[in-house]
# Entry
Amino acid sequence: MKLIHLTDTHLVVPGRALYGLDPEARLAAAVAHIRVHHADAEACVITGDLTHWGEPAAYDRLRHVLAGLPMPVLPLIGNHDDREAFCAVFPQVPRDANGFVQWVHDTSDARLLLLDTVMHGDEAGPKSGGYFSGGRLEWLQAQFDAAGAQPVLLFMHHPPFGVGVPAFDTINLQADDARAMAALLRTQRQVRHLFFGHIHRTIFGSWHGIPFSTLPATAHQSKLDFLASRDLFTHEAPGYGVVLVEPEQVTIHVADFLYQGPEFDPKQP
Ligand SMILES: [Fe+2]
# Structure
C-alpha cells in the first residue's frame, strides 16, 4: 500500500510571493509529479501549515490545486492555519466532537489517525507551539481502543519532542501535552510510525521506540543550524514523501520533484 506525505504547503493569496517563492506553483509541481509517478497511492496526507496566513482565498487556491490529485487528500492544519477558515473551504474534512480537525481514515494496510495539534479557542493564530489538550488526548485514547490490534500510522503537524536544534525545539508540542502523549503511546504497540511536519527539513529517528519522520516542505525550507537560536529559511530543495506500507515494513522515500538535472545510465559511462 502506498501513501503520499506532503507537508507545509504554506499557500498565500494569489499574486503574492513568500520568501521569494511561489508556494502555489511549488504545490502544483508536486501534484503534477505525483500524478505521473504515484497515481496508484491510496491517499495523500498533508501534515499542516496548508496556508501561511490562513486567508480564505489561500484555502481556495489550495483546494483548486489539490483537485488535481487522483487519490483522497487528507489535509491537517498547522499553527499557520486558521481552523475556521480551513473548515469553511473544506467542509468535507471531519472534525471531532470538540471541533478539532482530527479523524480516522482506513486504508488497506493500516488505520491512519490524523491529529490536530493547533492551539484552540481565542488564542489560535500563527503561533508556533503545539497543543493536544481540550479533549484531544481522550479522543486519541478512544481511537486506540477502537483500533484494537490494527496497525496504526499517526499523522500530526507538531513533533511531540525536540529534535536537538535550538530554533526548532521551542516550537514543538508543549511539554505537558507531549508527556501525556508519550505516556499514552508507550502503551500502544500497534503504532507503526509517526509522521509530522512543521520543521521544513528531513528528519527521521525514533521516540519511545516509535519510528518517526518529517520531510522538506513543498514551500521554503528551514536552515539546519545547531548554534542559532532563531530560525532562518532557505531555498533548499523541496520534497514529498512516498510511503510504502507492508505488514512487516514501512519504507519512506523523499521525492525531489523539482529536480531537472542530468541522469546517467551506468551502462554508458
Ligand atoms: Fe510550516
